[in-house]
Design a protein that fits this description.
The chain is an all-alpha fold. It has 2 domains: about 50 residues, no CATH class; about 60 residues. Helix content is about 55%, strand content about 0%. The protein starts with 15 loop residues before the first helix and ends in a 22-residue tail after the last helix.
């Protein structure tokens, strides 16, 4: 598999072979170039800056700006997401509290209805109206039919 010779890794040290290719590709400094890395002019370290005598390409300003913009966008997404999650959590806690209150209210109303419908509670409520509790068992009324 042969690599594309026009693409150069900016962090790979330049060997004499790579330097020769670059020198042949860009013979004049002031000329417009299609390669943005070589068009930036002096973006390599000299041998005085690099004691091992290896020349490295420094990342372009454009790549740093893209990196910083990407980081900034990720931070914005993270901040928005955490705010949205906190809001959802507060809403959930509020609804849970309201549900517990309504549940306890329904239990208390149910117990009041159960107590109000007992026979002793009905007797106490109907005492003032003149109605009394039946103490004799009911009698079954029979209709005389044609058979009897």
């Amino acid at each position: 598999m042969e690599q594309n010779k026009s693409h150069i890794n900016p962090f790979e040290p330049l060997t004499s072979k790579n330097q020769a290719q670059n020198a042949g590709a860009n013979p004049v400094q002031g000329e417009m170039h299609s390669d943005p890395v070589s068009a930036q002019g002096n973006n390599t370290q000299t041998s005085a800056e690099n004691p091992e005598n290896k020349t490295y390409r420094t990342p372009s300003v454009r790549s740093w700006i893209l990196f910083l913009l990407t980081g900034f966008l990720l931070m914005l997404v993270y901040i928005y997401n955490s705010g949205h999650a906190n809001k959802a959590l507060r809403t959930k806690e509020k609804l849970t509290k309201e549900l517990k209150e309504l549940h306890s209210e329904s239990i208390s109303i149910e117990s009041q209805i159960t107590n109000a419908s007992t026979q002793s509670a009905l007797t106490k409520r109907l005492e003032g109206s003149g109605l009394k509790e039946i103490t004799t068992p009911p009698i079954k009324l029979m209709r005389k039919g044609k058979d009897e």
